[in-house]
Amino acid sequence: MTSDSNESWGMKGLIVDEPWISLILQGEKIWEMRKTACHHRGRIALIRKGSGQVVGTAALVNSLNPLLSATEYAEAEPKHRIPRGRQAQAFADGWRTPWVLANARPLSRPVPYKHPSGAVIWVNLGQDVLRAIEAQSNQVVDKVRIPAKPDSVELDEEGDRHRSYFPRALPPLPLEKTAKSPPHPRSAVPVEPRTDVARSGTSRIVKVTGGNIRNNHIYVPLDFFPSDAIGGGNRSEIAPRAVTITFSPGSTIETDIDGTKRILRARSAVADFISRAGLKEGDAVRLSSTAPYCYKISKETNAR
């Protein structure tokens, strides 16, 4: 996709869905996986899909050869941040070509633009939008705040229904689902989503106990998460909806919360995080809300 010489265009904007755009703006995702190569280079705007707003900028510095195997895909997870449980589907559907991003920066105030009919990957933004972006170029943003957006499905340039990486028609993946693990039924009990959960940009600090270290879990405050992501005490009582958790350091997964124990159900990912972060009894971790149903868990260095 080459840039156009029409001088009325101020900047090209790339449409990216959640949770990926939040990960890009936080500097934790540098590969945007697509189906085809990209020839455009330089500074681009980042558009949160379905919002009608530019929320950040980045430099598009390269387009690499497609990943050729599932092993390559798994090894590249720290760059593309697609959870292990979704990689097989993403690879099979052809999302194998990394577009390399650098210097991603969120805007302090999202800039609205007029979305042209049929645009699903690139948008050519006008000079007025560019000026609004440039007016914020020297401002520093500490938190990435992503408001809720409508759930839309569009056609990409190849005619595939998608939401950036995966068909939305697929059921929510995870909860550490593997080929040897049969799907578990979601709870049939309807749950009204809470409206008092943590807003984007907020965080909590929780202490790590000896029991946490021994049993590969971390106690989480239930009021920090949506009620429809909180399930029962066993896998037959999985919550109706999963949350996306990014461990730093570690992987990005989808899981629900065991409400009886106040822990994430995906313990193997927690165990990996505990090991990589070198957590010990008495340490603390920070739970941060980065977007609706999206969270980051990291070691808190100033807790002692």
Question: What tags apply to this protein structure?
Answer:
304 residues, alpha+beta, Archaeosine Trna-guanine Transglycosylase, Chain: A, domain 4, At1g16640 B3 domain, 2 domains, five-stranded mixed beta sheet, 7 helices, 16 strands, disordered N terminus
Describe this structure in words.
With 304 residues, the protein is of the alpha+beta class. It has 2 domains: 9-162, Hypothetical protein (Archaeosine Trna-guanine Transglycosylase, Chain: A, domain 4), CATH 2.30.130.30; 203-300, Beta Barrel (At1g16640 B3 domain). It has 7 helices and 16 strands. It has a 6-stranded mixed β-sheet. Strands 9-15-16-11-12 form a 5-stranded mixed β-sheet, covered by helices on one side. Strand 11 (243-248) and strand 12 (252-255) form a beta hairpin. The longest helix has 11 residues, at 267-277. Mean pLDDT is 77; it is low at 1-8 and 140-199.
Helix content: 10-25%
CATH top-level class of the largest domain: Mainly Beta
The CATH topology of the largest domain corresponds to Archaeosine Trna-guanine Transglycosylase, Chain: A, domain 4
| Helix vs. strand class | alpha+beta
Task: Report the biggest beta sheet as strand number plus sense, adding barrel if it closes.
Answer: 6 strands, mixed
Give the topology string: H per helix, E per strand.
EHEEEHHHEEHEEEHEEEEEHEE
DSSP strand tally: 16
Question: Strands of the biggest beta sheet: in what spatial order?
Answer: 2-5-4-3-1-6
Return residue spans where pLDDT drops below 50 for at least 5 consecutive residues: 1-8, 140-199
Strand content: 25-35%
Count of alpha/pi helices = 7
CATH architecture of the largest domain: Roll
Span of the ends, CA to CA = 51 Å
CATH superfamily of the largest domain: Hypothetical protein
Mean pLDDT value: 77
Task: Please tell me the total number of domains.
Answer: 2
Based on CA atoms alone, the radius of gyration comes out at 20 Å
Query: Judging from the principal axes of the Cα atoms, what is the shape?
Result: globular
